[in-house]
Backbone:
């Protein structure tokens, strides 16, 4: 006797089986499943042929389960219960009824980009957890490539072919001066050559924006007089406010400080772009929660 070919019941066949088992009539099962009676009959017939056994004895008034159907019932119920649970899980995730958003961002950017966005997102989706990996600039891209996070917000120094970037906001390098400083008086942008001889404050060598600053100064033929090197731009701001000299930093962070004693001036000749991006690992799709958070962040930035 040849063995029956391998057969895997479909979800539709199992749903038809369970409906007929519970209701004992094709018409009632069809009504419950929102299909025609002939469709239910065909699904049961396919299931019986695939399993090689009769599941229901047909009488003039109803369908009676066979011993095989009684044996099959617990397994069918368990499978459909698991499928329904899986569907509910994905529906909750897609509708942001639960889930998680994990992102990488440097502490400097996080201090002025995250508060409003996280507050708005939390109010709209309280069941979705937001995890912030406040990493150092030199760890930023590796956190994304290694999939420790879903995406990153920042400016990768050397993005390479392993990540994709999408502009979140336009930014550029600026000079921050105390309000009484000579370079704060004019409304025109400060040219890089004007920085020659000025005692300046910026981040330490090789860190964050420092390579960009050094390369731009060299391009402009200027030797910068950096008298204080910091790890955090917030330190540079209070140093400048205290009269220790102008500082060089991205304009977005400087303006976000809201310090009325400081003047933020654009740097020109050349003007240096320092845009902020949404950074993702190439080929990786974002969850509905991550996409929603990014959209919330964009709206928060637009509305200020």
Residues:
């Amino acid at each position: 006797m040849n063995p029956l070919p391998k057969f895997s019941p479909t979800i539709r066949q199992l749903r038809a089986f369970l409906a007929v088992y519970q209701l004992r009539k094709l018409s009632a099962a069809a009504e419950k499943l929102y299909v025609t009676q002939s469709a239910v009959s065909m699904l049961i017939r396919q299931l019986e042929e695939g399993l090689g056994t009769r599941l229901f004895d047909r009488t003039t008034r109803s369908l009676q389960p066979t011993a095989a159907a009684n044996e099959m019932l617990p397994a069918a119920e368990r499978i459909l219960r698991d499928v329904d649970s899986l569907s509910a899980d994905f529906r909750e995730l897609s509708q942001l009824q639960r889930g998680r958003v994990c992102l990488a961002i440097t502490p400097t950017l996080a201090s002025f980009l995250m508060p409003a966005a996280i507050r708005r997102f939390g109010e709209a989706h309280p069941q979705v957890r937001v995890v912030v990996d406040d990493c150092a600039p030199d760890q930023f891209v590796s956190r994304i490539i290694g999939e420790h996070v879903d995406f990153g917000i920042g400016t990768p120094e050397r993005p390479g072919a392993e990540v994709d970037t999408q502009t979140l906001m336009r930014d550029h390098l600026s000079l921050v001066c105390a309000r009484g400083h000579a370079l704060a008086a004019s409304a025109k942008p400060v040219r890089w050559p004007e920085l020659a001889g000025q005692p300046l404050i910026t981040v330490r060598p090789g860190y964050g924006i420092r390579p960009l600053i050094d390369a731009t100064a060299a391009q402009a033929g200027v030797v910068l007089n950096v008298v204080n090197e910091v790890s955090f731009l917030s330190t540079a701001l209070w140093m400048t406010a205290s009269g220790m000299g102008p500082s060089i930093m991205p304009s977005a962070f400087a303006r976000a400080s809201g310090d009325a004693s400081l003047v933020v001036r654009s740097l020109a000749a050349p003007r240096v772009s320092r845009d902020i991006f949404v950074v993702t690992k190439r080929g990786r799709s974002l969850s509905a929660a991550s996409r929603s958070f990014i959209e919330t962040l964009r709206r928060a930035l637009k509305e200020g």
Q: What stands out?
A: The chain has three domains: 11-90, 99-169+276-303, 173-268. The chain has a mean pLDDT of 89. The radius of gyration is 32 Å. Residues 99-169+276-303 form a domain with the D-Maltodextrin-Binding Protein; domain 2 fold (CATH 3.40.190.10).
